[in-house]
Every structure is written in structure tokens, then in C-alpha cells.
Amino acid sequence: MIYFVGAGPGAVDLITVRGAEILRRADVIIYAGSLVNPELVKKYAGSECEIHDSSRMTLDEIADKLISAHERGLVTVRLHSGDPALYGAIREQTAILRSRNIPFEIVPGVSSLFAASSALKTEYMIPEHTQTLIISRIEGRTPAPENASVALFLSAGMIERSCSELIARGYAPETPAAVVYRASWPDEKVIRGTLETLPELSRGITKTAIILAGEFLNDDIKTTSRLYDKNFSHGYRRHSREGGVIVPE
Which residue, 75, 135, 87, 85, is CA-closest to 106? Predict the structure, then answer.
């Protein structure tokens, strides 16, 4: 099995129990060395574990390592900082695995978003003052599109109203949408549809669920991040004019 594991924000003891257990029994670990605390690998990896730093690797090189490990029947961990769902650049990796029918699992992690609020000794939501948190980034070398992904908490009893309000605010009725009921619990249930169809599909769910909407749910999108693009240079890897990859000393 291949596991995409969230390493957490940095502190060695802020990885999840599940993530730590999988690291301990991993035969291969590929970790984002530019972001993940290397002490995590030192603490949890076994003495015989094969370890690779992906900060200087391209997408093809990472994929080759994952596929090779799978073909050898090894337990493999792709270790990402924070939670893989937030700027994790995992979509293009999992797409390659899906195309080859290679199974994988995603293990969530503690985002720096929550480590930051803990450091500030506060919470993001204050009744009657703010109930919305915007997660975004300033546009740099990679564009930041205006289309927003949406996650609605505490709204499971108002799924129809939630979808209608999103449509009224400019989201197309055919926008992909989902309801995840009791995420990670033994009776977890995932319902997929569109903003138009989701209310009927999720009828009967009234609590303990998150409503999600946005193009991130569209599995047909082929856009990839630039982080592991062989033509994209950064502090850990430079691209030459001749098309090769130069790894800085």
C-alpha cells in the first residue's frame, strides 16, 4: 500500500497517531525535505527503511519511486507537510497511481493553520463576529485563480438552503459538490453530486457532516502543480536551458 501522510506543522509529536504508526512500518519513505521536519523521519523510520528526499526530484522521479516500491510489494509513505489537502500537490501523484490501478490511502495531518491558532491561544470562529475563514495565497510564479473551494461546517441540517445560496452567489448549478457524513468514523458516508443534485442525494443527513463544493471535486481536471515540474526551477532544483535538471550543491 502507498500512503500519503500528513506530517503536521513541524513539531515531531504533532503527527497523528495513525501517521506515526504507518511511518514506523514503512519500507520506503519519500518526504518533502524542503518542508518536513527531518527529525520526524529520524524518529519514526525503521533502520532498514529506504528514504528519499523529494525536494530535488521531479514528478516523474517521484512517480517512479512510488511505482517501483509498489511492484516490490513494499509499504510506502509519501510524507507531506501539514495536511496533504492544503497545497499538498498530491493530485498529480494520485492521478498517476489511479491510471495504473495502484491502491493508495491518504492520512490527514495537522495543518500549520491550526498550529498558528494554538500559538496565538485563540480560535478562528467567534459567534456574532466571524464564522468564515478564508484559506488562500498571494499570486506569485504560480497563478491564484478566483474560483474558490467551499467547506461548510454546522450546516448539514440545511443542505438544500446551502446549495441554493451558493448558486445565488454565482456558483453554477453543475458545480461538483459532496457531503461527507461522520468523516473517519466507522460509519463514514460520502455522497457526491452537484449543487443542483446534492440536496436530493443527501436527503436524511441532518447532522455531523461537512458540505463541500468546488472544482477540486472534478476528477477530470488534469492541471498539475509546478512544484515537481521538471521545467520549474526553485531553491532545491534548477532547470537548464537544455532541458535538464540541475541539482544545487
Answer: 85
